[in-house]
Amino acid sequence: MIVLDGLTKRYAASTVVDAVSMRVERDSITAIVGTSGSGKSTLLRMINRLVEPSAGRVWIDGRDTADEPPHLLRRRIGYVIQGNGLFPHRTVAQNIATVPRLLGWSDARIAARTAELLEALQLDPVRYAGQYPHELSGGQQQRVGVARALAAEPKVLLMDEPFGALDPILRAKAQEDLLAVRRRFGTTIVLVTHDIDEAFRLGDQVAVMRHGRILQCDRPAALLTRPADPFVAELAGRGDPALRLLSLTTAGDAAEPAAAGDVDDGESAVPIPADASLREALSLLVWRGAQAGRVVDPDGRVRGVLRVAAILAHGRPR
After folding, report:
1. Alpha-carbon gap, residue 292 to 281, rounded angstroms
2. CA–CA separation, 253 and 146 (whole Å)
3. Is 212 left (phi over 0), alpha (psi -120 to 50) or beta?
4. How close are the terminal C-alpha atoms of the chain, in Å?
5. For a surface tag, which of 165, 175, 273, 276 has the fewest beta carbons within 10 Å of its beta carbon?
């Protein structure tokens, strides 16, 4: 768990981060979102003391980070930046091994961890371990950057606009990879982004910053339906608030038990992946001209039935 207590950063007469207090639960993703200059990146960097606070405290698992030398603190906290920051003269494997070597890991342990991370991020170790960053695509470089940040098995991963430079297709894939990594390794992640859709997709909780303060920190659905501030309401609801709300629930979670005859075996029996969002499910049903579909797990088991009317009900504030 990460606890921020009154965290403040001042530069001369300017207060960049103003008395921020926040809790980040273990094995969760917290997304910090806000406009440029809101203080979100400075707040993130105070967690690993790349920026020293002017006031306030940071605790990680009950330990005050001020009591630990900064270089040792950073070795147990993963850090990913936009553009990945890979060493161009080192191979993929050598980049990933950077912190484990500083910690004195054996060659065998480093090799095993490198292979594990590359496989988790869908990069074949045999093919990619010996390549150099310039031989990789932008998305592959970013995945290697995540692997390097996770190499020493940190409990905490900080990410500063990690996917901002990727095109929409690569960005969506990188987000999926991050969620898969969190599920597999149980890492606590704090992510800074300017993209509210990315914050909602990735964050178990989302903190909205403006002028150095957190206006609201809550679950994405709460920001949409119960905003604490006009700026939060405008930022969270910009565009299509109903569709954004539908994107927060999966078809598997919304499926109802299917009774005999609910969905026949004809064309109306549209299969809907259980992990699809309700927004995606609605689009699929509208495209197929169906009023209901079967929600299907990856193994083919039918989870239940999902109707258009039920989907629409989820798109309204409760």
Report:
1. 10
2. 29
3. left
4. 30
5. 165
